[in-house]
Structures are given as structure tokens and as C-alpha cells.
Fold Protein kinase domain-containing protein.
Amino acid sequence: MELNSTTIHDVIHPTAAFAQDRSALDHASSPGTGTESVSWLESQLNPKNRIDSLDPPLNPLWRIDGCTGLGTQYYAIPLFVGDIPPMRFDVFVPQERTQDPLLRQILDLNAAFHTKDSTRLNRLGITNHILRVLQKWSSEGEGNEDFITALYQHHPFGSRIILMDLSFNIESIKVNVATTFSVEAQLLGPKALVESVGLPKELIPGTIDISKLSIVQQLHDSVCLVRISHEEEDAQKLWIFKALTSGTKYLICELRNLLLMEPHRHVVSKPKYLVTKYCRFGGKTAVVGIILPFYAAGSLRDTIPILHIHGLLKPEMQIMWAKQLASAVLHIRERGKLYYPDLRLDNVVLTAMGDLVMVDFEQRGVWCEFAAPEVNAIAYVHTLAVDQPEDERLDQEHEDRADLLVSNYERSMTGDQQKDSKLGDGNHEARDNRSYNQFKDVEDRPSRWVSLLNRLLPDWQALEADEKYTPLPHGYTSYNIPWLALDASEQEAAEVYMLGRVLWCIFEGQCAPQHAAVWQSYRREPDYEFPEYRHTPHQIRELIDGCTKGRRETLSKLVTRVGSKMVLRRPGGEVDLNCTPVEVLDAARDWWKAEVEEAERFLAKREELKGRGEWDGNPYGRLSLREVVRRLDEYEREVGVKEVDREVLAGLLRRCK
């Protein structure tokens, strides 16, 4: 089954249990792969269906640093106008479902759906096609040096360069600039920001105008590398400029968290500057982003697999990073008074000498496959509460099977887990007789989930009412609905779960505990997935297992991405590249039905026990953060791990880059 935006709704999200748009099957096969004859109108022998060239332009006027938006948004940087500020004038192409299937194949648009980094992206046809369009626009059209210079000087932050369509012939592709004020309308001035977050003025960093920054490279959707022409000391370094082109409230949330955070050597430091810009919308000077340190050694996600592949990932490195990470997570919880819902190797970077640093404090959270089961349960409810599919009709044959769904909860727990868990209290009869047939009342489904979410987190709608930062009810200081619905002990247990999976990555030498989300691929995908052990020492295996009690099988064990297709894993784990799109949709639907039912069962039991004052915030009996730190210290002493040679490690990190 080919990837497109419908795939997420119909396969990857819990919405697959209730409503699948079978029109996704229209995009299920790549054109030209079958044995059927192709008409002259569709044939690539027809001159109108040919692209003159997909080679990069000679003497290019633009470059592309990356991609987001499921292959529809590209970070384009002009190369012919000198230094420019990081204004985020990205190039947008039409939504993928409106495009010719043959053109999608030639331009590698299915691969662009999940490819983010510049190295791999610049090998795709779509990248060079866009570059050739921009080359023509700037050399022959209105996108000349004067126009682009004026664009960067006068247009609102986050304005868009739009390719009005995609076609084989670049001559017919029109380029428009959309002046958008939506981002700047969300921004707050320095004074208003201080008042909104309620912090003392002395905690607020100094300001610097965005014109003092020059972009070096757009690294990710929210992060770019810049130089600062402000003070001599700053000008000698590279810095990170972080800004959002949507949902700017999350950046203010991160700013607040960092400013309140007590310093720790393995947690990113407070912002150096607030970056401001004069906004024509409202005639205000507003905070558009923040300046943070740049860690040139890159992320642990990219470093660990390279070291592992070359036999250079040593035990002393692994235990050092494990201890540093565990101490940082503990510090964030105990001293920072924060929950950290984004724990994965992507958000762990390295200093030049190899020390670990945690970054990204927006508190948005991770994709459900990477989160703890109890977080997922609430996330499923939230996704279903806000979902508004065009057609909410269930297939009758699957409706009739709803009564037959049986909980896998007790069967998924070991005997020890059942004994240690409030949820394994033996009250199976009452639990199984309770009605969980949410699949039958389709028309009432949205209100059902809204009602449940209202009980879990009162006024949760206020957190989603606006993209800009506004005062929040009930003392909420962030916008992550599943995590806000947890108490402090539940949050720690969920953090420990994610920490355990990251420790698995460190000791197994893998970039992630499983293949990335369907909308993102890694440069190096994991060779195998959690919880399979091949290299982890026995004592650390026990530690990881203690962190991840209550784990459940994930959808990726059944449906996974191979290249640019969604395929099935058959019993035994083998990938079936010849499965049909219908099989993928049916498998996802059935898996999500059982998973959503189990989530509701868990939340109902939690609500019942909380009402009786009997709820244990660590229902699976996971280790505490302090216990993880203690066990890592004990392991280091018992095994006698030698100290890391920092000079050798620094050299390895330079080679990894």
C-alpha cells in the first residue's frame, strides 16, 4: 500500500478502527508496475509525459535543506543574494493526492513523504524538479535578486513560496509568493511575553533582531543553524535559532521551561537571546524565536549506529551515556518540576567531547508507538475525540464482531506483573461483563470520547482553542493533553518507560527501538526492534525490563513501512511485500479495534480505582528514576567499566560527522 496522507488516518491512527476511506486504494499501486498495456496518453514515450531533466541545475541559484509536511513543504534557501536572515520562506507543492500517479512515481513523491534530511532528499526527483523551477523563476521570472532581497526584508515571517501545480514541464509551473500574517499574528512582544508566562524580568534573556542573524542551514522544521553579527564573541560561533511556523505557543512553553530549569550539565542551557522582529501585523516588535547553543557532534540517534556498525561502540561509552541520560531525566523531574514526554535519541545531542545533552522542551510528546501504554490510552481517546472524518460508516461484518473482542490485558502481563499490579486484582468477571461496545454506536462516538476526555482532563478544549499562547485554566502550564491527565507518579512511570527503551538503543547500538513513524524514515533504520536483545549485558536487560513493564505489542509488529510502502508482517515476523492494500487496511482496522477497546478498559479501571482512593500511580510496578540511576551506578562498579578516553571519543565523533 503506497504512502499518502490518508494512510495516517486509515492505518496509523486509532481512527482506523472506525472509519477508513477506501479511496486510499486509488493510490495503492505505483503506475507502470503491472503487466497491463499503457495507453499513449499515459505512456512515458509520449513527449508530454517526459521531464527534460532531473539533474541539479548548473550553477544553482537555490538549495534545499530538508522537507516536512508529508513531502509538501521544502526548506529552500536562495544562494544568489548574500547573507539572509532565517525567515522561513519555504516552498510548498500541491497536496500529494491531487497529483498524477505517473508524475508521483517519476518525482519520487512517495519517498519524499517520509524523507526529511537533505542528504537523502537531494537524491529524489522532486528536489531537483523544484530546484529547476526555482532556477527558471529567479533567472527568467520575477524571482530575481531584487525581488528576493525585498522578500527577505519586508515580508512576514513564515510567508510561502508556492508552486501552484506540479507538471512534467517546468515551463508550465507557476510560482507565487503568499504573504501570510498567521505566524506573526500569534507572536507576543517581549513585555507581553514576560507577563504571559509570569516570570521575573531578571530571568528573561536579552533581545536581538532577526536581521542580525544569517542562516547557514535549516536543520529541521523548527531548528536552523545561524551566525550572529552582534558581538565579536557571538560572531565566532555557530548558534541554533529555534522558531515555529505554526503553534507558536509551544515555543513559549519551551522558553518558560528552560528559564525556570535549574542548570544541569546534561540539559540544554537557557536561551542566549530572544530573537525579535518588527511585525506589520499590529505594528509590534515581537519575539519570533530563541537562540540556543549548537552541538556540532550531532544527535545520539545518528552517532550510535555508526559507532556500532564499525565496532567502535564501547561499553564505557554506553554506560557513560546511560548514566548521563538517567541523571538528566531525574534532574528534570525533581529539580525542574517538569515532565519530559519527548524522550528519544533524536532529542539527545552530543558535545564535542562526547557528553550528552537533552534538548527540546516544548512538551509536545512522541508518536504513540514510542510512548508508554497508559499515555497511549489517553492519546487514543484524544485522537478519536477530535477526529472529524468525512464518512463515519463501519463495515457491518466488523461491527458484528465487536462483542467478541476480548481483552489481551491480563494475557499480556507476566505472573509477576499481575501480582505487582492493581490492575491484576483478579476481578476478571466484573471486568469482562462490562460493556465496551463503543464500535456499535458510531453516530454517538465523538461525544463518547469527548465525555471521557472531559473526565480525564477538564477544559481540555481550552488547550486547543488557539495556536498562540494564552492563559490556561486549572494552572496548566503546557498543552500536552495525555500527560497533563496523569498525576506526578504516573508521569514518572511513563518517563521511566521511555528511558528504558532509549537505554535499549544505547546498549544494542540502534538508532531507535523500532522503525520510525511512517511519516519519517531514518538514515539508518534499526536492524531489529525492541525488546529483542543481542548485545545488552544481562544486568542491563533486567534494568530495561524493569523500566518497561506493561509494554504491549505495537502496530509496527503487524503493519510496517518498507521503503515507501505499507506492508504486513506475517506470523514469525517476515515482511510480506506482496500483500494487498485491502489486507493492510483490514489488519490495521482489526488491530486498532482491539487496542482502543483495551485502552478504554484500562481508563475505566483507573477511574474506578481513583474514585475509591485505591489507584497506584505506578500500576505496572516499574522502577523509579532514582532506582534506575542507582542500578546503573552499581553496574558500573561491579563490572569495573573503565573511564572513557575523551580525546579518542572526540576524534570518533568528528569522523562520524
